[in-house]
Design goal:
The protein is mainly α and about 600 residues long. Helix content is about 65%, strand content about 5%. The chain contains 29 helices and 5 strands.
Length: about 600
Amino acid sequence: MNVLSYVLVYRKFFLVVFTLLVLLPLPIILRTKEAECAYTLFVIATFWLTEALPLSVTALLPGLMFPLFGIMPSKNVASAYFKDFHLLLIGVICLATSIEKWNLHKRIALRMVMTVGVNPAWLTLGFMSSTAFLSMWLSNTSTAAMVMPIVEAVAQQIISAEAEVEATQMTYFSGSTNHGLEIDESVNEHETNERKEKTIPVPGNDAGKNSSNMELEKNSGTGAKYRTKKDHMMCKLMCLCIAYSSTIGGLTTITGTSTNLIFAEHFNMRYPECRCINFGSWFMLSFPAAIIILFLSWIWLQWLFLGFNFKEMFKCGKTKTVKQKACAEVIKQEYQKLGPIRYQEIVTLVLFIVMALLWFSRDPGFVPGWSALFSKYPGFATDSTVALLIGLLFFLIPAKRLTKTTPTGEIVAFDYSPLITWKEFQSFMPWDIAILVGGGFALADGCEESGLSKWIGNKLSPLGSLPVWLIILISSLLVTSLTEVASNPATITLLLPILSSLAEAIQVNPLYILIPSTLCTSFAFLLPVANPPNAIVFSYGHLKVIDMVKAGLGVNIVGVAVVMLGMSTWIVTLFDLSTYPSWAPPISNATMP
């Protein structure tokens, strides 16, 4: 037993040593560059899937192993760790830092929810829409972390309001003179304060259920009480809506999630003559898919947890229930706490709009963009150029004056504070993702230099006898399954070189396979550990793993089905996917005899 506990404690260390030793015969026996690169690939893939080492640490291994195996010089490997992607990421993080610093994201979310109303079904759709919109520009994780406290406050206020109504009704029927049914924030003060003390609870099992309609459900891990099963289902529904919509919203823009950025950089590096993947083209192909997935996911989750009552949803002219009034009051109070919109928020919003407009208009495709002004240097200005331009303005534009008191008592301004500072930027910058992506680029370069990519493509060429739609479906399901147990960036970084080689080997437009695979990489909906938004909402204690599995399976099916639909409809109209393109490797070079 002591030995087993010892192994359990040091399992990651033993896994690293075991992986390195078990795979070592591959380069020793075969003694080819392909085998040596395959050894590096398998080691990195194992470490990424098991997280025996931190993902970013594993991403540094190509810088160590490729020079030792003679695959690439060290300086060439090092140059792969900082690309155009990293400049784009820096500019986007500058925007995200300012948005979160000045609470613009919270104002947008609350305003959108106030617009859709307080009917439970429409409220859920409002939260999903606002979360998805924010996730287009902020990281999925920070979006979920920002919106969940608002959702939790609304849910708890709804439960408290119903409890007060029934208590008041019972007092009325018992002969009390209190006939009012007004909801005051002070009701159930002890219980409300007890809920507010809960920040990140530990999930537990339900206990103490009664058979009557007035049953109390108590989560043994959090102490949160649900008066009825419907209350509990409502909390589950709201949590999952936030988790899934933060992921779905990230699909819409290249900067919305790291997997989109990784795909764009890999594609533009591998096929530099294409110049067809930019902010505008990606938005046009992914926005319809994201809207459909979001809407169908809303219907699925609503039906799964609360049922779908069309009569209740579309009723007009009827008085709001106490629950709806309480919900609206919470949202209104949260919005009022923000006060009137400030100068810093206005400037951030203007820069945000300017950045989006410059991205869309750089090279829209159907008309000449502003990049045509620099026709002498075609392809030099990219989306990262726009991101850097706007990002630098956040460090330049004044946010407020800094004052000091002179010995005479006079208050004078001596400097100003910009919209964001370097320390604030550093706290938001995901350096781990930057290194992880760099490691993926280095790994892809090594596969090309060693010939491993071409070898894999040749071995996969028999798949060319299958229908293209079936190949897309298989690759999409493979990616969707793998991303449930591995990180999304690691999954897409590992598979992009392989899928690119597959497309070249079977003479199919690479976009036909890479686009659906990239979108499906974000479909990590089944488990709490699949992605950070899932873990954040799970930590509030309303969900069990089985709840997320049942709900996530339906959303996964919806996502893959919509992607397959898009590949046969509107996405085909954006790109000529029916023929093998001239910007891809020629047929004579794509496969070996």
